[in-house]
Amino acid sequence: MVRTAGRPLPWHFILPALLALAGVLLPMVYLLLRALQADPQTLQEIVFRERNLRLLGNTLALMLGVLLVCTLLALPLAWLTTRSNLRGKRFLSLLLTLPLAVPGYVGAFALLGATGPGGLLETLLHLNWPRPQGYWGALGVLTLFIYPYLFLNLRAALLGLDPSLEEAARSLGYRGIAVVLKVVLPQLRPALYAGWLLIGLHVLGDFGVVSLMRFETFSYAIYIQYSASFDRVYAAWLSLMLIVLTLSLLWLEARALLGLNLSRVGQGSARRQTQTPLGRWTPLAYGFAAIPIAGALVIPLATVGYWTVGIVAQQTGLSDLLDALWNTLQASAPAALVATSLALPLAYLGVRYPSRLSRALERTAYLGYAVPPLAFALALIFFSLRGLPFLYQTLGLLIMAYALYFMAEAIGPIRSALYQASPRLEEAARGLGYRPAQAFMRATFPLLRRGLLSSMALVFLSSVKELPLTFLLAPVGYDTLATRIWSYTSEAVYAQAAPYALIIVVFSACFIGLLLTQERR
Predict the structure, then answer these.
(1) Spatial contact of 332 and 474, defined as CB atoms under 8 Å apart
(2) Phi/psi of residue 177, each to 5°?
(3) Are 148 and 97 in contact (CB under 8 A)?
(4) Which of 87, 172, 232, 433 registers the highest number of CB atoms within 10 A of its CB?
């Protein structure tokens, strides 16, 4: 057995953890080796192409723009739903969170169909709203559907902030905006960093929205290079450049949190937060909150629903819809099971055997999740073609990609369940003569049921919505809900994509509602 801090690590958990580590790292290593196949002259031409600089500028401009607009939107909304006297704040918070239930590419195609000449807004309201496109279209669509990541983090931070800190600042002579700048915003730094990281990673890895908006970023260029060219070396270098950007973002977030300590000094319970009366500003506050609700929920869902009713009435393409639904379930359900099985030993070692080794093993799961999905898929394609060609464009490769990529999402619920399960039960089982693996299965595993189910639900839902991995790795002719949506929308046949989008939205909305219900409990 491997030993750490005097305690032996059980091999029946070490071996699956190492298998998960190999699954995450091997595609990345192969991608690097593939990129280095270029000779020095070709390598110089690839790296220093003028197009790469333009892609870098576009990608960074989009990411920074989305971060700025999301902050300007999420911060006031978080304050309104926690510190103001608005009525119906819980319901308003639910509506402001629900855009997470709408995948970005679904929202993009719905907004494309609702705007412009002949769009739903012009048909029903005689309002010819300009169709989103290019940089500003991508910025607006991404902001509408990913700002809840920052909103939820800021809302949780504001709810946990002790108002006595603000009272102490006022007693020292600070007033109004000075209290916000000196006390509130510094306390929100961890929430801002966490939300910015999630949004930044999402923008760097986004493929569907930028494709529909026809705005070239690294992800869009990787797809174009893969689908329209045989220069796989250049595609590999584009993927590595995107990975470097992603890792830089992770490093900046870790650096910003280094040495940060915002805990209170001394004992005592936190004071109840006072609600700020808005008075004549109340209508303006509701109007501000209505902007993302209308843009991310009302217009897209009305558009999708309107088209779906027409398709159902015509009874066209319903058999294809059922086939796509079955294919989606056929890939997502096994992926959820495999990802949870791989995450279990990683979480167990991290909780029961805390050490540098166990933490390093657990962190490897997040490495795959930090890589943009298009680059991850491209790495798996290279690996399968060179090492295991029989896996290329098979359902097994797609399931493996889902499981490895979303394994990080499965660790959290399992780890929480392990913290709640007493290790003494397992020790007692060993005292009764059971072997370590038997003791775990009999004493601990039954207590992890809720955590395991939550993990499988998270991975299942993410797999249902996933587009880049599915598009590049699915077998020929294997259409899922996500790929059907992309196929129809890329040809501007928006009405045909509506039923597929509606099913994904219903799946996601049910899950978001379940999360909020568990949060209240």
Answers:
(1) no
(2) -65, -25
(3) yes
(4) 232
Residues sharing a CB contact under 8 Å with residue 455, sequence separation 6 or more, in sequence order: 336, 339, 340, 343, 409, 410, 411, 412, 413, 414
Residue type at position 274 = T
In whole angstroms, give the CA distance from residue 175 to residue 179: 6
| CATH homologous superfamily for the domain 1-44+315-490 | MetI-like (1.10.3720.10)
SS3 string, 495-520, reads HHHHHHHHHHHHHHHHHHHHHHHHHH
- Using one digit for the tens of pLDDT, what is the confidence trace for 238-251? 778 888 887 788 77
* Four-CA torsion 128, 503, 286, 178, nearest 10 degrees: -110
Over the stretch 72-114, which tens digit does the pLDDT of each residue have?
Answer: 999 999 889 888 888 888 889 888 988 887 888 888 888 888 8
User: For residues 436 and 478, what is the distance between their CA atoms, to the nearest angstrom?
Assistant: 43
The residues spanned by each domain of the chain are: 1-44+315-490
Q: What confidence tens digit (pLDDT) does each residue in 258-274 have?
A: 655 554 444 444 556 66
Look at residues 477, 472, 467, 475 and name the one whose alpha carbon lies nearest to residue 500: 467
The amino acid present at 423, given as its one-letter code, is: P
Q: How far apart are CA 448 and CA 454, in angstroms?
A: 10
pTM: 0.78
As given in the structure block, the two tokens for residue 285 are 């506050």
Strand partners, 60: none
Using alpha carbons, select from 114, 520, 450, 43 the residue that is nearest to residue 298.
Answer: 114
Backbone angles phi, psi at 291, to 5 degrees: -60, -55
CA distance 52 to 71: 28
